[in-house]
């Protein structure tokens, strides 16, 4: 599995520092299950943070630590491993049949078919993940093959992690493990690829701005 799309470094470093709100941290933890490059960034950031906490001089240490981090990341990108190395964030063997990373299984179980899906629009379904997070909302989206999520802009940031299948929008194509990190000004219309459709985790920090009438009417009802 080759991961082509990653979260912004601010989120990866925020995750390493333990400073992300719960919904963002779910998305990053789930992405780390698939992505050796971002796992390396987290490990390097944790090492740097640990060294600084250990009393080393921050200014003296920062350049060499950054060089080491960049060298490590370059090495991983040039020699993409066949599969992620072992990590506590990878799924346990008993749960490997599920498409869901362990970070998500602790919230919603391991069977996506058993979720009480809520119809969002025609061939798009959602399941809102219960968290204690008032800053952002996390949900699972299930989109039938060849069907679009309604075109929308954002009042904030939106992360979309593909859990199964793939989708495309005006920007690129996203497959399992890829995480799309979309900024406030982006307007896009994701479409699930043909085949088995697409299941993804979406996290956003503000209501979507739908361009079409029916989703706009339903928005307050569906809490999207
Ligand atoms: Zn990554």
Could you explain the architecture of this structure?
By secondary structure, this protein is α+β, with helices and mostly antiparallel strands. It has a domain at about 105-220: Jelly Rolls (Sandwich), CATH 2.60.120.10. It contains six helices and ten strands; from the N terminus they run H-H-H-H-H-E-E-E-E-E-E-E-E-E-E-H. The protein has helices at about 10-15, 20-35, 35-55, 60-80, 100-110, 215-220, and strands at about 120, 125-130, 135-145, 150-155, 160-170, 175, 180, 190, 200-205, 210. The strands form two sheets. Strands 1, 2, 3, 5, 6, 7, 8 and 9 form an eight-stranded antiparallel β-sheet that branches. A hairpin with a 4-residue loop joins strand 5 and strand 6. Helix 1 packs across helix 3, helix 2 (about 20-35) crosses helix 3 (about 35-55) and helix 3 packs antiparallel against helix 4. The protein is globular and about 50 Å long. Mean pLDDT is about 75; it is low at about 80-95. The structure holds zinc ion. Zinc ion binds near residues 6 and 37.
